[in-house]
Amino acid sequence: MSSISNRWPARMDVLQSASGLLLVLFVWAHMFFESSILLGKDAMLWVTRMFEGEPILGKPYPVLVSLVALFILTLLVVHAILALRKFPANYRQYSQLHRHLGQLRHGDSTLWYVQVITGFALFFLAVGHVVMVLLQPDNIGPYASSDRIWTGRFWILYALLLPVVHIHAAIGIYRLSMKWGVFPSERHGLWRGRIKLALYCIFAFYLCLGTASLATYMQIGYEHADQAGERYRPVGAH
Ligand code: HEM
Question: Is the pLDDT of residue 168 over 90?
Fold first, then answer.
Protein backbone atom coordinates (compact mmCIF):
# COMPACT_ATOMS: atom_id res chain seq x y z
CA MET A 1 0.00 0.00 0.00
CA SER A 2 2.69 2.47 1.03
CA SER A 3 4.87 1.68 -2.06
CA ILE A 4 1.91 2.51 -4.34
CA SER A 5 1.05 5.80 -2.61
CA ASN A 6 4.76 6.77 -2.64
CA ARG A 7 4.74 6.82 -6.42
CA TRP A 8 2.40 9.81 -6.53
CA PRO A 9 5.00 12.53 -5.86
CA ALA A 10 7.09 11.17 -8.77
CA ARG A 11 4.03 10.95 -11.04
CA MET A 12 3.05 14.50 -10.18
CA ASP A 13 6.59 15.65 -10.95
CA VAL A 14 6.47 14.01 -14.39
CA LEU A 15 3.04 15.54 -15.06
CA GLN A 16 4.26 18.97 -14.01
CA SER A 17 7.31 18.72 -16.28
CA ALA A 18 5.26 17.39 -19.22
CA SER A 19 2.54 20.07 -18.91
CA GLY A 20 5.27 22.75 -18.61
CA LEU A 21 7.07 21.46 -21.70
CA LEU A 22 3.84 21.41 -23.75
CA LEU A 23 3.00 24.96 -22.62
CA VAL A 24 6.46 26.27 -23.56
CA LEU A 25 6.31 24.61 -27.00
CA PHE A 26 2.85 26.10 -27.52
CA VAL A 27 3.94 29.61 -26.45
CA TRP A 28 7.05 29.56 -28.64
CA ALA A 29 5.02 28.42 -31.69
CA HIS A 30 2.22 30.89 -30.87
CA MET A 31 4.70 33.80 -31.05
CA PHE A 32 5.38 33.05 -34.72
CA PHE A 33 1.66 32.84 -35.62
CA GLU A 34 0.75 35.96 -33.69
CA SER A 35 3.70 37.94 -35.12
CA SER A 36 2.48 37.24 -38.68
CA ILE A 37 1.16 40.83 -38.34
CA LEU A 38 4.77 41.90 -39.07
CA LEU A 39 4.29 40.51 -42.60
CA GLY A 40 1.09 42.52 -43.05
CA LYS A 41 -2.63 42.44 -42.25
CA ASP A 42 -3.36 39.86 -44.97
CA ALA A 43 -0.76 37.45 -43.57
CA MET A 44 -2.30 37.66 -40.08
CA LEU A 45 -5.81 37.20 -41.51
CA TRP A 46 -4.58 34.11 -43.39
CA VAL A 47 -3.15 32.60 -40.18
CA THR A 48 -6.41 33.39 -38.32
CA ARG A 49 -8.53 31.68 -41.02
CA MET A 50 -6.19 28.68 -41.00
CA PHE A 51 -6.76 28.15 -37.26
CA GLU A 52 -10.50 28.48 -37.87
CA GLY A 53 -10.22 25.54 -40.29
CA GLU A 54 -11.27 27.44 -43.42
CA PRO A 55 -8.80 25.79 -45.88
CA ILE A 56 -10.19 22.32 -45.01
CA LEU A 57 -13.80 23.01 -43.96
CA GLY A 58 -14.61 25.66 -46.59
CA LYS A 59 -15.70 28.31 -44.09
CA PRO A 60 -14.27 29.62 -40.79
CA TYR A 61 -15.30 27.90 -37.52
CA PRO A 62 -14.01 30.08 -34.63
CA VAL A 63 -15.19 27.38 -32.19
CA LEU A 64 -12.02 25.44 -33.18
CA VAL A 65 -9.97 28.27 -31.64
CA SER A 66 -12.06 27.98 -28.46
CA LEU A 67 -11.31 24.24 -28.30
CA VAL A 68 -7.55 24.90 -28.48
CA ALA A 69 -7.93 27.64 -25.83
CA LEU A 70 -9.83 25.19 -23.58
CA PHE A 71 -7.05 22.63 -23.92
CA ILE A 72 -4.39 25.27 -23.12
CA LEU A 73 -6.43 26.54 -20.16
CA THR A 74 -6.66 22.99 -18.80
CA LEU A 75 -2.88 22.57 -19.14
CA LEU A 76 -2.33 25.92 -17.38
CA VAL A 77 -4.59 24.96 -14.48
CA VAL A 78 -3.04 21.47 -14.09
CA HIS A 79 0.48 22.93 -14.27
CA ALA A 80 -0.35 25.63 -11.69
CA ILE A 81 -2.07 23.26 -9.24
CA LEU A 82 0.91 20.89 -9.36
CA ALA A 83 3.31 23.82 -8.84
CA LEU A 84 1.37 25.03 -5.79
CA ARG A 85 2.67 22.00 -3.86
CA LYS A 86 6.15 23.53 -3.93
CA PHE A 87 5.26 27.14 -3.06
CA PRO A 88 6.26 28.36 0.40
CA ALA A 89 3.05 28.00 2.41
CA ASN A 90 3.27 30.87 4.91
CA TYR A 91 5.21 33.95 5.98
CA ARG A 92 7.67 31.91 8.08
CA GLN A 93 8.61 29.70 5.11
CA TYR A 94 9.01 32.79 2.90
CA SER A 95 11.38 34.52 5.30
CA GLN A 96 13.38 31.29 5.78
CA LEU A 97 13.65 30.95 2.01
CA HIS A 98 14.81 34.57 1.65
CA ARG A 99 17.44 34.03 4.34
CA HIS A 100 18.72 30.84 2.68
CA LEU A 101 18.83 32.42 -0.78
CA GLY A 102 20.79 35.39 0.64
CA GLN A 103 23.27 33.10 2.43
CA LEU A 104 23.66 30.49 -0.33
CA ARG A 105 23.98 32.86 -3.31
CA HIS A 106 23.32 29.79 -5.44
CA GLY A 107 22.32 30.67 -9.01
CA ASP A 108 19.94 27.75 -9.61
CA SER A 109 18.09 28.32 -6.31
CA THR A 110 17.59 31.97 -7.23
CA LEU A 111 16.25 30.87 -10.64
CA TRP A 112 13.79 28.59 -8.83
CA TYR A 113 12.54 31.59 -6.83
CA VAL A 114 12.17 33.69 -10.01
CA GLN A 115 10.14 30.78 -11.38
CA VAL A 116 7.81 30.88 -8.35
CA ILE A 117 7.21 34.65 -8.73
CA THR A 118 6.75 34.64 -12.53
CA GLY A 119 4.52 31.54 -12.27
CA PHE A 120 2.29 33.30 -9.75
CA ALA A 121 2.00 36.38 -12.01
CA LEU A 122 1.33 34.20 -15.07
CA PHE A 123 -1.63 32.54 -13.46
CA PHE A 124 -3.46 35.88 -13.65
CA LEU A 125 -1.93 37.32 -16.84
CA ALA A 126 -2.04 34.18 -19.02
CA VAL A 127 -5.41 32.96 -17.75
CA GLY A 128 -6.86 36.45 -18.49
CA HIS A 129 -5.65 36.26 -22.10
CA VAL A 130 -6.69 32.64 -22.70
CA VAL A 131 -10.18 33.16 -21.23
CA MET A 132 -10.63 36.13 -23.57
CA VAL A 133 -9.66 33.90 -26.55
CA LEU A 134 -11.96 31.14 -25.29
CA LEU A 135 -14.99 33.43 -25.02
CA GLN A 136 -14.40 35.64 -28.09
CA PRO A 137 -12.75 33.35 -30.68
CA ASP A 138 -14.41 35.29 -33.52
CA ASN A 139 -12.79 38.52 -32.30
CA ILE A 140 -9.28 37.74 -33.59
CA GLY A 141 -7.80 39.26 -36.76
CA PRO A 142 -5.69 42.21 -37.90
CA TYR A 143 -8.29 44.87 -37.00
CA ALA A 144 -10.13 43.02 -34.20
CA SER A 145 -6.85 42.27 -32.36
CA SER A 146 -5.42 45.76 -32.97
CA ASP A 147 -8.62 47.46 -31.73
CA ARG A 148 -8.58 45.32 -28.59
CA ILE A 149 -4.88 46.10 -28.04
CA TRP A 150 -5.09 49.87 -28.64
CA THR A 151 -8.66 51.08 -28.00
CA GLY A 152 -9.37 48.26 -25.51
CA ARG A 153 -5.99 48.91 -23.78
CA PHE A 154 -4.99 45.23 -23.81
CA TRP A 155 -1.44 46.40 -24.63
CA ILE A 156 -1.00 46.84 -20.86
CA LEU A 157 -1.73 43.12 -20.29
CA TYR A 158 0.55 42.03 -23.16
CA ALA A 159 3.42 44.36 -22.15
CA LEU A 160 3.47 42.54 -18.78
CA LEU A 161 2.67 39.04 -20.11
CA LEU A 162 5.38 39.13 -22.80
CA PRO A 163 8.54 39.37 -20.61
CA VAL A 164 7.03 37.34 -17.76
CA VAL A 165 6.01 34.37 -19.94
CA HIS A 166 9.36 34.25 -21.74
CA ILE A 167 11.40 34.45 -18.51
CA HIS A 168 9.26 31.63 -17.09
CA ALA A 169 9.56 29.57 -20.30
CA ALA A 170 13.36 29.95 -20.58
CA ILE A 171 14.02 29.12 -16.90
CA GLY A 172 11.51 26.26 -17.17
CA ILE A 173 13.39 24.64 -20.07
CA TYR A 174 16.72 25.16 -18.26
CA ARG A 175 15.38 23.46 -15.13
CA LEU A 176 13.83 20.62 -17.17
CA SER A 177 17.13 19.90 -18.89
CA MET A 178 18.95 19.90 -15.53
CA LYS A 179 16.31 17.78 -13.82
CA TRP A 180 15.92 15.07 -16.45
CA GLY A 181 19.63 15.11 -17.43
CA VAL A 182 19.33 15.25 -21.22
CA PHE A 183 23.09 15.70 -21.70
CA PRO A 184 26.20 13.61 -20.84
CA SER A 185 26.99 13.82 -17.10
CA GLU A 186 30.79 13.83 -17.58
CA ARG A 187 30.59 17.26 -19.29
CA HIS A 188 27.88 18.68 -17.05
CA GLY A 189 29.48 22.11 -16.50
CA LEU A 190 30.09 22.70 -20.21
CA TRP A 191 26.50 21.79 -21.14
CA ARG A 192 25.02 23.86 -18.33
CA GLY A 193 26.84 26.92 -19.74
CA ARG A 194 25.76 26.14 -23.31
CA ILE A 195 22.12 25.63 -22.38
CA LYS A 196 22.07 28.87 -20.39
CA LEU A 197 23.57 30.80 -23.31
CA ALA A 198 21.09 29.26 -25.80
CA LEU A 199 18.15 30.15 -23.54
CA TYR A 200 19.37 33.74 -23.08
CA CYS A 201 19.44 34.06 -26.89
CA ILE A 202 15.97 32.48 -27.25
CA PHE A 203 14.59 34.84 -24.58
CA ALA A 204 16.11 37.91 -26.29
CA PHE A 205 14.76 36.76 -29.67
CA TYR A 206 11.17 36.33 -28.44
CA LEU A 207 11.28 39.60 -26.51
CA CYS A 208 12.31 41.46 -29.70
CA LEU A 209 9.77 39.59 -31.87
CA GLY A 210 6.95 40.19 -29.36
CA THR A 211 7.80 43.86 -28.86
CA ALA A 212 7.89 44.47 -32.62
CA SER A 213 4.50 42.73 -33.09
CA LEU A 214 2.91 44.50 -30.14
CA ALA A 215 4.10 47.86 -31.50
CA THR A 216 2.63 46.95 -34.91
CA TYR A 217 -0.77 46.00 -33.42
CA MET A 218 -0.73 49.27 -31.43
CA GLN A 219 0.05 51.30 -34.55
CA ILE A 220 -2.78 49.63 -36.57
CA GLY A 221 -5.17 50.06 -33.60
CA TYR A 222 -4.23 53.73 -33.26
CA GLU A 223 -4.89 54.38 -36.96
CA HIS A 224 -8.16 52.41 -36.84
CA ALA A 225 -9.37 53.86 -33.51
CA ASP A 226 -12.35 55.82 -34.86
CA GLN A 227 -13.72 52.66 -36.51
CA ALA A 228 -13.11 50.41 -33.49
CA GLY A 229 -16.14 48.40 -32.33
CA GLU A 230 -18.49 49.91 -29.74
CA ARG A 231 -17.28 47.51 -27.04
CA TYR A 232 -13.84 49.17 -26.93
CA ARG A 233 -14.99 52.80 -26.78
CA PRO A 234 -14.79 54.46 -23.36
CA VAL A 235 -18.24 55.22 -21.89
CA GLY A 236 -19.58 58.52 -23.27
CA ALA A 237 -17.23 58.60 -26.29
CA HIS A 238 -19.85 57.69 -28.92
C1 HEM B 1 -5.55 29.08 -27.83
C2 HEM B 1 -4.75 29.84 -27.15
C3 HEM B 1 -4.25 31.19 -27.64
C4 HEM B 1 -4.59 31.91 -28.76
C5 HEM B 1 -5.56 31.56 -29.88
C6 HEM B 1 -3.81 33.13 -28.71
C7 HEM B 1 -3.87 34.16 -29.66
C8 HEM B 1 -3.24 35.36 -29.55
C9 HEM B 1 -3.42 36.46 -30.46
C10 HEM B 1 -4.30 36.44 -31.70
C11 HEM B 1 -2.63 37.49 -30.03
C12 HEM B 1 -2.52 38.87 -30.67
C13 HEM B 1 -3.28 39.89 -29.87
C14 HEM B 1 -4.77 39.63 -29.70
O15 HEM B 1 -5.48 39.21 -30.63
O16 HEM B 1 -5.26 39.89 -28.57
C17 HEM B 1 -1.93 37.02 -28.85
C18 HEM B 1 -1.00 37.75 -28.12
C19 HEM B 1 -0.23 37.25 -27.10
N20 HEM B 1 -0.37 36.03 -26.49
FE21 HEM B 1 -1.69 34.59 -27.02
N22 HEM B 1 -3.02 33.13 -27.59
C23 HEM B 1 -3.24 31.95 -26.91
C24 HEM B 1 -2.64 31.54 -25.73
C25 HEM B 1 -1.57 32.18 -25.12
C26 HEM B 1 -0.85 31.69 -23.97
C27 HEM B 1 -1.15 30.37 -23.24
C28 HEM B 1 0.12 32.61 -23.70
C29 HEM B 1 1.17 32.60 -22.63
C30 HEM B 1 1.10 31.90 -21.54
C31 HEM B 1 0.00 33.69 -24.66
C32 HEM B 1 0.81 34.79 -24.70
C33 HEM B 1 0.60 35.88 -25.52
C34 HEM B 1 1.42 37.08 -25.51
C35 HEM B 1 2.65 37.32 -24.60
C36 HEM B 1 0.90 37.94 -26.47
C37 HEM B 1 1.43 39.33 -26.85
C38 HEM B 1 2.54 39.09 -27.84
C39 HEM B 1 3.20 40.35 -28.35
O40 HEM B 1 3.66 41.19 -27.57
O41 HEM B 1 3.31 40.47 -29.56
N42 HEM B 1 -1.04 33.39 -25.50
N43 HEM B 1 -2.33 35.73 -28.58
Answer: yes
